[in-house]
Amino acid sequence: MPVPTSRFDPVCPSGIVPIHIGDKWTAMVITLLAAGPMRHSDIRAQVGPVTAKVLTAALRGLERNGFVDRMEQPGPPRTVHYGLTPLGRTLLPAIALAVEWAQHHLTEMLDAQEAYDRAHSGGGRAEHPAPPRSAAAG
After folding, report:
1. Interior CA angle at 11 toward 10 and 15, to 5°?
2. What is the per-residue pLDDT across 32-73, written as a single tens digit (0 to 9) for each?
């Protein structure tokens, strides 16, 4: 069952949440693969604005760390699927916990960032624009 595309909405503040697992794409890819193996193009379509090169690098890193298996099926046409390993599945509770934390505390964190930026920027202008308050953590 695919993860709803809205979960990876471009305005999702997942990039600013202080809890990170791997790079920007790791948690999203692991979450998608929890439903079952997927092709590169299907992962890319659901994750959102990521280049094929960057997604390939992220998948290779996940494979190197033992979180993802790359399964090649000889063709024609040759197909490649990526799936979670048992070790990769152990990250799912940590990702869920990080998402839950963000849903409960993101507004507080954004308020603290804005206050800090106002106090330290001299012009009252935030150094890092915050996403809209209505965006759910992704």
Report:
1. 85
2. 999 999 999 999 999 888 899 999 999 999 999 999 999 998
Name the pairing type of β-strands 38-39 and 68-73. unpaired
Residue 58: CB atoms within 10 Å: 21
68 close to 86: Cβ distance less than 8 angstroms: no
- Token digits of residue 2: 């695919």
Distances (CA, A) of 55 to 23, 50, 118: 11, 6, 35
30: its two tokens? 């692991």
In the beta sheet, which residues pair with residue 80?
Answer: 72
Query: For the purposes of burial, counting CB atoms within 10 Å of the CB of 83, is it exposed (0-12), middle (13-18) or buried (19 or more)?
Result: middle
Instruction: State how far the Cα of 123 lies from the Cα of 132, in Å rounded to an integer.
Output: 21
CA distance 64 to 51: 20
Residue 14 near residue 49 (C-beta atoms within 8 A): no
This prediction's pTM: 0.69
List, in sequence order, every residue forming a beta bridge with 82; answer none if it has no partner: 38, 70
